[in-house]
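Hi Y.,

Following your request, here is the sequence exactly as I used it, all 488 residues.
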Amino acid sequence: MSVLTGKELRIVGFLCNWCSYGGADTAGVARFTQPTDLRIIRVPCSGRVNPLFPLKALLSGADGVLVSGCHPRDCHYSEGNFYARRRLEVLKEFLPIVGIDPRRFEYTWVSASEGQRWQQVVTAFTDRIHKLGPAPRFEDARPIYDLPALTPAAPLRPLGCGTSPALAELKDQIKAALEAKEVEFVMGWQIGHDPLHTTPLFMRTPEDVDKLVWGPLNVHSLATFLPQHKGKKVGIVVKGCDSRGVVELLQENLIKREDVVIFGMGCNGTVDVNKVLAKLGDPSCIEAVQGGGATLKVTADGQTVDLPMFEIAQDKCRACTVPNAVIHDHFAGSPTKIPDDATPEPAAIMNFLDGLSLEERMGFWRGQIERCIRCYACRNACPMCVCRDHCVADSREPHWLTQEDSPTQKMFFQLIHALHLAGRCTGCGECNRACPMGIPVGALKMQIGRTVKKLFEYAPGMDENAVPPLLGFELEEKNIHEHHIEGA
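Below is the corresponding structure, written out as C-alpha cells. Let me know if you'd prefer a different format.
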C-alpha cells in the first residue's frame, strides 16, 4: 500500500525549531508531496527532547516517533544535538526490553534549507511504519503472569556467610572516629525484628557500635541516607556495591567528600531474604540464623535448615566484580579477591528476557506490572533517587502520570525510573529487593546498564572524577553511528 493512500497511522514528530521545522516548512512552501500521518511537535532544540517524550508517545498508542534536529556541528545552541544523540541512542537500545520494536523510533538531522531531504525522510519513515503496521498496545498485550524457575548465574568467586574476623577491627575504627568527634554518627547495620533481617543502625556512642553486624544479611544500601544528611559530618559502613553509590553521589555533587568518612570491609555476598523464606516455606517464627563457611543455618519453627549460599545469594552478588569499597578512609581486614580471569555471566532474568520475542516481552511486563501497588518502595530505596519530594510520579505540573490504576500508568513510572538512572545506576539491586510484590523491576535498570556499557564503555560509581555519559558528549562518537532511514 502506498504511504499516501489508505488508513493513516499515528506518527509523532519532534522537530527542532531552527532547522528541521524550517525544513518541513520549506518542503511545504515548495509543495513537495508528503504523507499526512505525521503530527509535528515543535521544540526549541533536539536537545530539549527528553527520551521520556518519545517513550510516552509510544506507550500511549503512537505507531511511530521521529525526532529531527540540526546537523551535528550546526546546532543553533552549539551542542544541543550532541547531547540529544547520546540520549536518543540510549532510548533506541532500551526499547526492545519492554517489547517495543526499535524500528518504530528514529532520529535524524535535517537543516532548514533541506526541504527535499525532509520530504524523503518523512516519506521513508512513514513507509517503514506502514510496513510494520499498527503498533501493539500495552493494554492489549497478552499478559504473562508466571515467571518460570530461572537457573542462577555461576558466581565469580566462592560466596561465604561466616563471621568476619575483621569485625572487631572495624568496630574499633568506628569507636575511635566517634570518640575523636570526626563524625556526628556512623551508619551501619544491626539485627532487626528477627534474626533473618537487619535494619540500619545509626551509631552515635561506643555502646551503639557494639550492636553493629557484618555479614550476608547486610542487604540495605546505606548510601540512600547520605543526601538527607548533606552538610553534616557523617560516617558510613559500606560494601563494594554501596561504595559505588557513594561515588555516584559525589560525582553529582549531592554530597561532599570532606563530609563523609567511609568504613569498608571485604564482602563475601549477601542473601536474598525472599529466597530464604521460600525455602523455609514461609515460617511463622525465625528463631536463629548462623553463618559458617558457605552455608547459612536457619532455625525456624523449631527446625534447623542448612541453606547453601550458592542457592540463596542475591543475583547481583554472583556477578559482582567490586566486593571491596571503591573509596574508603578506613578498611578493616583483607580485601576480598576476585580471580583475574573471572567473567560475569548475565543475570538469569536477562537471559530469560533475551530469549523472548518482542510480543512476549510486552506480555511479560503487562502481566508483572499488574501486581504493582504504586508504593514507590523501589524509588525510595534507590540511592540515586534523590528528588523524592519532587518526583514526576507525584507532580501535577507537568502532569506526567495520573493516579489511574492501569498497567500503562504503572509501567510508565517504572520506565521513568529506569531512564532517570541511565549512566547512573550502580546495580545495587535495591529496587528489586524493596519491591513487596516481587516484580523484577531491576531488569529494566540492567538493560540501561548494558546499553550504557555498550555505547560508552562506562561503569557508574567507579571514579568520583568521571563525567556520567549523558552529561557529556564526543564530537565523533565511537559506538554511535548516524542512522540511515532506508529510502531517505
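The two ends are 18 Å apart (CA to CA).

Thanks again,
Q.
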